[in-house]
Amino acid sequence: MAEPLFHRGPGRIFRRLGTRAQVALCQLPLTVIVAAITAATPFAWPSLLDSPLYVAGIVLHGILFLGCFLVPWERLAHRPYLLIPVLDFAAIGFLRNGAAPLLPGLAVLVIFPVIWLSASGMLARSSLVLSFVGPLLIMLPTAVAHFPALKASDITSAVLFPVMMLAVSLAIRFASVSLRQQQAELADKDRELRDLLAASREREKLLETVLDATDVGIAAVDRSGHFLVSNSRQRNFRRATGADDALPGQGHQLIFGQDRRTLLPQDRRPINRARAGESFADYLVWAGEGPDQRAVSTAARPLVSEDGRLTGAVVVYTDVTGWVESLAANQELVSNVSHEFKNPLNSILGNVDLVLDEADGLPPRVAQRLAVVQRNAERLLDLVADLTASASTSLNVHPKRTDLASLVETSISSAQASAQRSHVEIAADVPSPLWAYADPLRIGQVLDNLVSNAIKYSPDGGQVSISATADRQWVRLSVRDTGMGMTEEDAARVFNRFFRTESAQKAAIPGAGLGLSITRMIVERHGGSIQCESGAGQGSTFTVILPAEGPPPAF
């Protein structure tokens, strides 16, 4: 436990001494001076050795100093060692009056017992009385000796000196009271600091326990890159990267990009991106190498002071190796299954097409059933194509300056027959030309999907409207229907693969839940985004946002 501030330095050493040593230390200054005077007496004032009072004073001083060590003061109550400074008055009186008139200045030695009594903490009245009476009794014998021829200077000396000692005692008393108050305040503040320190350590221990109990790695760093907080999972991540430095994000670390082979440059490492003020989520990196390599999804948020300055960042690490491997296995499975389906379906469609080319020689009923086979085989082939596209991680787009108005017109023409069968009206309000930086083939696929969905989910008729707006940076293309709509929860999940709303399943509307997932993938590959606004029974609006211009040319 930390000691109070006023216990440090000489005060701490004094308090570690025993009671006898403390008493002797208080008496030591006076004893040293008396010993020096005693040693000089045979050479400087040999006649004083014939003075009984002078010799008695020296002997009494020696007895008092030995008494500091010999008397068991620690066993006695009520601080009896204060008797020593009281007896010092008598010893000094013997010395002074025995040495007069050769050494009248010895009376000044009374300052030592006065200081001791005043600073001892004894009752103020007692110390003040002793500080006045003791020097007065020392000075009186000289005044009495000159009584027949008493002078004003003798009276002044006999009275003024005790008054001066009384003033010294008062000053020391006031200083002691002030010092004790300061010591008490310092002790209170010291206790408060120790309580705050203990509470801070408890909170720190609680924070460490909570952080270590989480299943993610957490690291907080300051602007210079030093760790403020980190938990055990984050430290495991650093060990996996082979970190050989004290500062995070520096030195050689095995942190790879998504290809698992290319080392990330320092400025693309998660902590360095966060220290630069970036805020990101789902930033996937690979830590380590060989069979122990782990996929880590990282996210970062900056730490900002009250005045808006960047002071550091918090980075969160999540081990997603299992999820990434499962996703890769799932994509591989879907891709393999889709490939195996495609060959027999193409064979079926090819043979049905050959037979239907000679439908004139077939009975009408057989030709009708073959047409059903052809239609469902084509549907299966489209489904296989959707599965292949959704499982592909390399859906390529080749954007260029494209007129979206012509793509809208083509999409409406293609969907017109389906709209008539469903009694759905299609209207478009798109300025022409409407330029965007897009791949016409892929965006045509997006429009076809959105328009066909709008028709499909308006089974009892309705309207489908296509509108567009543009500014210098973005083009917004909206497809709105008046169909069954969906809840807010379903609208938030509508772009997930294989997701279909409960209302669509109850209405037996065909679909695999892949079209909107592929649509979002295409739009995001263009650097754009897609949004859905819907309400149950109120229709849906899908808005595609695409860049109006491409990147500046490289020179």
Structural account:
With 555 residues, this protein is of the alpha+beta class. Helix content is 54%, strand content 15%. It is built from 16 helices and 13 strands. The strands form 3 sheets. Strands 2-1-6-5-4-3 form a 6-stranded antiparallel sheet, with helices on both faces. Helix 5 runs antiparallel to helix 6 and helix 12 runs parallel beside helix 13. The radius of gyration is 50 Å and the shape is rod-shaped.
Helix and strand topology:
Blueprint: H1 10-16, H2 19-44, H3 52-70, H4 83-99, H5 111-119, H6 124-145, H7 152-213, E1 217-222, E2 227-230, H8 232-240, E3 255-256, H9 270-275, E4 280-287, E5 294-304, E6 310-319, H10 321-357, H11 364-391, E7 400-403, H12 404-421, E8 424-429, E9 435-438, H13 440-456, E10 462-470, E11 474-481, H14 488-493, H15 502-506, H16 515-525, E12 529-534, E13 540-547
Parallel strand pairs: 8-10
Antiparallel strand pairs: 1-2, 1-6, 3-4, 4-5, 5-6, 7-9, 10-11, 11-13, 12-13
Please supply descriptive tags for the structure shown above.
alpha+beta, five-stranded mixed beta sheet, disordered N terminus
Q: What is shown here, in short?
A:
This protein has 555 residues and is of the alpha+beta class.
Please count the beta strands (DSSP E, at least 2 residues each): 13
- Side by side, the strands of the main sheet go 2-1-6-5-4-3
Q: State the distance separating the first and last CA atoms.
A: 70 Å
Count of DSSP helices? 16
SSE string, helix = H, strand = E?
Answer: HHHHHHHEEHEHEEEHHEHEEHEEHHHEE
Q: What is the overall silhouette?
A: rod-shaped
Mean pLDDT: 79
Strand fraction: 15-25%
What radius of gyration results from the CA coordinates? 50 Å
Largest sheet: 6 strands, antiparallel
Low-pLDDT residue intervals, each spanning 5 or more residues: 1-8
